[in-house]
Write a structure and sequence with these properties.
single chain; about 350 residues; alpha+beta; Diaminopimelate Epimerase, Chain A, domain 1; 2 domains; 18-stranded mixed beta sheet; 20 strands; about 20% helix; about 40% strand
Length: about 350
């Protein structure tokens, strides 16, 4: 049998090293080394991401989609930070495109980099993302990182609207909330169903239709930066005494296996806005597969007459593998999209 080293003579156009993690069930494929960075312009992680999308979007498709990934794969690309007080920079991608912020992905990157020795085991790790600086506070044990608490960017309720949808006779109430990404939040009571895996395909269809309907109706502008925005994620939730439960739909119909870090922050902003969650009150948020994040609001303030919260979420990530992926010069199939149903 040939050794791994002997495969170095394969006729490849490019090779990519990744470390893969899961955070409470949701994957993150972290790109460690790749192609020449010199074509990537910009003095921020957001600008670097835009350059990457222009120059190397085929790398995203290669690693996220089949045959190397799958429709529900999620990824992160790590850079040296531009902000002086940041320890690393990262942006996030999936099989469809890019997101400004990701809680589960940040937990995955920080946990993996600490466990692999790429970061020093400090009590505070500052991460530069396209949405802003995010603070990570790891909890350590003899075996490595046990849990990471992420302080997300400031979050707030953007507004409430109603949209017509094909699956209901009456308009659907939607709360639009910003938590690093713009979310459409919908109470499952309006749909007459509970959150469980037996209706996943329905939730995907509903989530995509809701997102499209909100974006068709609203011209979203971030109130503090003036940047145009769109709802990128739909979160359908149900409330319970022990833990709220939700399903988060994003991309081209991806479902988050974790409780969604930014989605947990969005839900806390909505609950605080409606008087149902206080500062420093623990908030347990559960995914569709039963995994949990613990959230908390550490601070609130008024900004331009908008109530803004500082949210944290805590969860665990584990490394699932290290990989070297290649692009074979002889292979005409570099990425595939084969959905289970037309969307």
């Amino acid at each position: 049998m040939r050794s791994v080293e002997e495969f170095d003579d394969l006729p490849t156009d490019a090779s990519f090293t990744t470390v893969d993690t899961h955070t409470e069930g949701e994957p993150t494929r972290i790109l460690l080394d790749w192609l020449d960075e010199s074509p990537l312009a910009g003095e921020s992680i957001r600008a670097k991401r835009e350059s990457f999308a222009d120059e190397y979007d085929w790398v995203r498709e290669l690693l996220m989609r089949e045959p190397r990934g799958h429709d529900d794969m999620f990824g992160a690309v790590v850079f040296e930070p531009h902000e002086e007080d940041a320890d690393l920079g990262v942006f996030f991608m999936d099989s469809e495109g890019y997101l400004d912020m990701c809680g589960h992905g940040t937990i995955g990157v920080v946990s993996a980099f600490l466990d692999l020795g790429y970061l020093s085991p400090e009590p505070l790790i500052r991460v530069e993302t396209p949405a802003g600086i995010v603070e990570a506070r790891p909890e350590y044990s003899e075996g490595g990182v046990e849990r990471v608490t992420i302080q997300n960017v400031e979050s707030f309720v953007y507004g409430t609207t109603t949209v017509p949808v094909s699956f209901l006779d009456s308009p659907l109430r939607v709360d639009v909330v910003y938590a690093g990404n713009f979310f459409a939040l919908v109470d499952s009571d309006q749909l007459g169903v509970g959150i469980d895996t037996t209706r996943t395909d329905d939730f995907i269809d509903w989530g995509l239709e809701i997102r499209d309907a909100v974006n068709d109706k609203l011209d979203i502008v971030h109130p503090f930066t003036g940047d145009p925005g769109t709802v990128s994620i739909t979160e359908i939730y149900e409330s319970a005494n022990d833990a709220d439960r939700s399903i988060v739909v994003f991309g081209d119909g991806q479902v988050d296996r974790s409780p969604c870090g930014t989605g947990t922050c969005a839900k806390m902003a909505l609950l605080h806005d409606t008087g149902k969650l206080s500062i420093d009150e623990p908030y347990i948020h559960e995914s569709i597969i039963g995994t949990q994040f613990e959230g908390r609001i550490t601070e609130t303030k008024q900004r331009d007459n908008i109530t803004v919260i500082t949210p944290t979420i805590a969860g665990s990530a584990r490394i699932t593998g290290k990989h070297t992926f290649v692009k074979d010069a002889r292979d005409p199939i570099t990425s595939l999209r084969v959905a289970s149903k037309e969307r």
